[in-house]
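Whiteboard transcription, Tuesday session. T.W. wrote the structure tokens on the left side:
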């Protein structure tokens, strides 16, 4: 333990667990348990126009989206914004949000959730669902555990199918 109560967290890119397929990859960087609950962090790389996360909200945490490269569409409440390289969007607890690569563009995003929630098992569940090894019922049953509550957003549907 350090003088400050927690150790520094250092994750090498080569050591980060990577999940997903060509259209969308997620690199698990730091879960809440690694940061003393301060934050959870992952990196998402989306192919041109690929979907990221469907509309949902968190009751306890804010979510920060930083566009490392490319362009992303983000739902923030009832507003759909397009963020480009270097842009930042922060969504407060309780606000519906979603993200995807913007039409005609790919996106590389750094995503930080604070305070942290143990989320790595959630992303592993999503990967199992994508691979046919889990069901939508499994995902719906996990909403409270991972503080990820799904909802419908006509604004998001319109922006994505426009």
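and on the right, the sequence the group agreed on:
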């Amino acid at each position: 333990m350090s003088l400050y109560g927690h150790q520094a967290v250092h994750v090498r890119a080569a050591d980060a667990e990577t999940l997903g397929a060509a259209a969308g990859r997620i690199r698990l960087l730091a879960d809440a348990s690694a940061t003393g609950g301060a934050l959870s962090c992952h990196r998402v790389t989306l192919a041109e126009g690929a979907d990221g996360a469907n509309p949902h909200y968190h009751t306890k945490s804010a979510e920060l989206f930083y566009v490392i490269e490319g362009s992303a569409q983000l739902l923030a409440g009832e507003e759909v914004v397009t963020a480009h390289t270097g842009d930042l969007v922060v969504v407060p607890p309780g606000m519906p949000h979603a993200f995807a690569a913007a039409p005609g563009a790919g996106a590389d995003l750094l995503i930080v959730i604070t305070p942290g929630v143990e989320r790595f098992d959630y992303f592993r569940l999503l990967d199992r669902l994508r691979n046919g090894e889990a069901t939508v019922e499994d995902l719906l049953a996990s909403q409270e555990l991972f503080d990820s509550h799904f909802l419908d957003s006509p604004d998001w549907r319109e922006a994505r199918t426009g």
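Someone added at the bottom: The longest strand covers residues 62-76.
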